[in-house]
Description:
Blueprint: H1 8-31, H2 39-43, E1 45-51, E2 54-60, H3 65-70, E3 71-72, H4 79-89, H5 104-122, E4 124-125, H6 129-165
Antiparallel strand pairs: 1-2, 3-4
Helix pairs in contact: 1-6, 4-5
Amino acid sequence: MRYYIDFNQTAAVLEEYARQVEALYGESIAKNGRIATGSLLSSVHVDVKREARVIGVDFNAAKYWEYVENGTEPHWPPPPAIRKWVEIKLELPGATASGRPFPRDAAIRSTTFLVSRKIAREGTKGTHDLEETLNRLNAAYAQRLTDALVADVDAATDAVLLPFIGTGGRPLKVTITV
């Protein structure tokens, strides 16, 4: 006969942790003015996965989240992505400094090239919003997660040992300390 630990209390703490990661990461992105299209923010989802004898937390987001978080080495970025960012993020005038008309599309093309060239020369700086969020939450959840793990193992130990050794009328409690 095999006995497994359910880790229900641990899973509950991890679910709460996952919701906090989503919320605080979103707040950090918004607070730091890092929202252009909103597609990164809306793509963030943190799941608690329970498979076989493993429980873990999976972070899922748009495929470019790592570049935003960690920055990039110099490279030529995809022009459509930069153009979209330029159109949303920058308010480009429809005239030159001398007041002559300057078509908006030409301004967008020119600015897209300049931004792309800067990225090709210097790369991009990472935001580290997720890292900061995780550092904040890990400190807050470390003891709660430890307590949940200990409670789950205690409950499983009691469930396995009590039928075999009985208590002789006395309460039996096996405690695990970390």
